[in-house]
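Entry: CCHC-type domain-containing protein
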Amino acid sequence: MSKLKSLSLPKKLDLGKRRLIKLLDELDQLLEERAALREIEEQLRTSEEHYRQVEESQEEFETTLNDDEVDSAMDEWAKFRQSFRQSKAKAQTLIDELRAVDVVPGSIRSAEADRYVRLPRCALPKFDGDVTKFREFWDQFESSIHQQRDLSDAAKLVYLRDCLTGDALGAIAGLSAANADYQVAVRRLKERFDRPVVVTRRLLLNLVGTPIREWDVKALSNHIDRNVDALTALGKDPRTEALTAAECLITVARESLPEQARIKWDEQTMEDESAQSDLSRFMQFLRNQAELMHNHRPSSLVSSGTPSSVARTPQKTTKLREHGKTATHLQVSVTDRCLVCRGSHRASDCPAIRKAAGRQRRALMRKAGLCFHCLEPGHVAKECGRGGDEKPKNGNSGEPGTSRLSERPSDPPLEKDQRRKEVNPVNVNLASRIKSGRARLQIVRAFAHGNGDRRMVVNCLFDTGAERSFIREDVAQELGLRGEKLSMTVHGFGGSSAFSNARNGYYITQNYVGQ
């Protein structure tokens, strides 16, 4: 009877091992297919129960062997036990990964949960890049995914991507699913969105900047509780010394700074967070910024070194930049075209002047502002370089431009070129230069009209880039002009200036230019 029992025990053990191997193969197949969590758990439970039965049979079998046979049987069972342990660990890892999505983060499992009772599904939190919500998001993600030791970093990165949207997702868009990239992603998110200084500032502004209106008591209570609780979570409890009046004052004053000044102050707080509550440092920062802005004000002198003859205003300066052309440009460009008919030839070759009679010709040249002798703009006949020394060849000195217009087509081309080269040069910033060597500023002569038929010739100064000119007060009084009262400051060399608030502004439109 004992012999029969000893023969049936090895067979029973062998059959148990075969059955356990079959169960483990089925478990591996379920793991490869990533089957349902419940199915994997049930297969693992069945395998564990059968393993314990086989282990009991193995121990009973070893009692029937001698010492040498026992050692050999134990070594064989150790290899079998190692294979079972590896399959179980692999299954448990996948089960933990699947459970991480389905269980409530941070919940404590009850006795029923240990018996595989599934809790209601709770989705992982989402984060879109709002710095005020990063701490709340990270606390939940850390407890449910980040602290899972059995979960690989590659799997954690997959869960992290699924929780991010908007700017937050864009911050880690270039990272792969490698294990090392998960740590890089966590570090990058914390560097960019874990900004307690910025969050504290926004929460303080929510409290201090509460609109002054009639609040519903419940709404006001919820508003204060929500912001105070959020500040307390950041270690800035307004009910204690953790949040000082200096930090509140700095936060409010920062919002009134220009954008560039705010950026510079934020750079300092990023380098040293203690500056956020250092009122003395903030006051010194404001003084430094005020001094720098004062030292970098634009000079009141024009680039040529001469004091501007106009009192510029921001509105006028904008218009000047739009046009970008002054009297200097006008003087240079006007010589390339005929001032009489606006053709692409010189005034001396203008057919309108050639065909006109004496008085009509003089009127055309006077209207165009041309010299009666050389037909060039910029000076009058008595200041012309050809006046007095050069006499008209045809003896007709009474008609303007006779010396030029009397040229015939039979004249040699070389003689014409020599005559044209005799024209006085025009300086860039000067309207004319007389024989004595004195330079004249650019001016335009215009008629200033008063009430009725009263009018007077006035000289309008055309300085480089000028927007306004002056006329004498006696001229304005004689014409009876009544302009708009303006305040004006005239800047001179060395920083000197004079202020006047009793000047009239007049508008002069170009209508007729006299000789």
